[in-house]
Amino acid sequence: MNTLATILAATGPLAAGWSGHVLWLRRRLRTARRDPLTGLRTREGFTRRAAALLRDDRAVVVLADVDHFKQINDRHGHAAGDALLKVTADRLAHYVGPNGVAGRLGGDEFAAVVLDTDGTVADLLAVLHGVLARPADKANPHVSTTVSLGWVRAADFPGEDLSALLGRADEAMYAAKQSRAGIKGARLGRLLSAVTGRRSGRRGAPTGAPAVGVAA
């Protein structure tokens, strides 16, 4: 008994120290997967959760890009731009709710995966589009812009992974931005030119990357 007590006394502090280290590592990991400005998941954290949600046939992938963001920064300063990004993230996270996931892919671009439980995702995204266009600060109503949205229903493209679906949502978002429609769903057909979820020429797309198809 004395020997056992001695061993426990010796190893107790070591076990407690290791347990504390594990908790510290977990907190660091959670922090690393959160964007420090918006609090949304980073690309890595978003990808992990989104991939799990895509197992559900009701999953819808959404891509959001802030319009004229550079002009906001140039005209009103980076603090105003940061405030706009933070409010956009908060509004997107509120729309997504606890059953979906929202993330900041980088810069002024956000992504989300939601579950369309009652088949009204197009109507709900139209409402979200209007909400995202509201001024970030009521005291400074001139600091505002629109957000272009592209979305794709995963069930329409069975077998495609998150990267491919983001590519489709990206194409739809770009079409919405170009036509000033504000929001568009992905067309049935093949991707125009997307690699790892990015259209050729868009931020994050590899230079000289080959196309993976043409639009139908």
Order of helices and strands: HHEHHEEHEHEEE
Lateral arrangement of strands in the main beta sheet: 2-3-1-4-5
Summarize the main sheet.
Answer: 5 strands, mixed
Number of strands: 7
Structural class: alpha+beta
Count of runs of 4 or more consecutive helical residues: 6
Calculate the terminal CA-CA distance, rounded to whole Å.
Answer: 78 Å
Poorly predicted runs: 21-31, 194-201, 203-216
In a nutshell, what does this entry contain?
By secondary structure, this protein is α+β, with helices and mostly antiparallel strands.
Notes on the protein architecture:
- The protein has six helices and seven strands; from the N terminus they run ααβααββαβαβββ.
- The chain has a five-stranded mixed sheet, with helices on both faces. Strands 6-7 form a two-stranded antiparallel ribbon.
- By secondary structure, it is an alpha+beta fold.
- The model is unreliable at 21-31, 194-201 and 203-216 (pLDDT under 50).
Keywords for this entry:
216 residues; alpha+beta; two-stranded antiparallel sheet; 6 helices
Explain the layout of strands and helices.
Layout (H helix, E strand, L loop, with lengths): L1 H31 L10 H11 L5 E8 L2 H8 L1 H19 L4 E6 L2 E7 L5 H12 L14 E7 L8 H18 L3 E3 L8 E2 L2 E2 L17
Parallel strand pairs: 4-5
Antiparallel strand pairs: 1-3, 1-4, 2-3, 6-7
Helix pairs in contact: 3-4
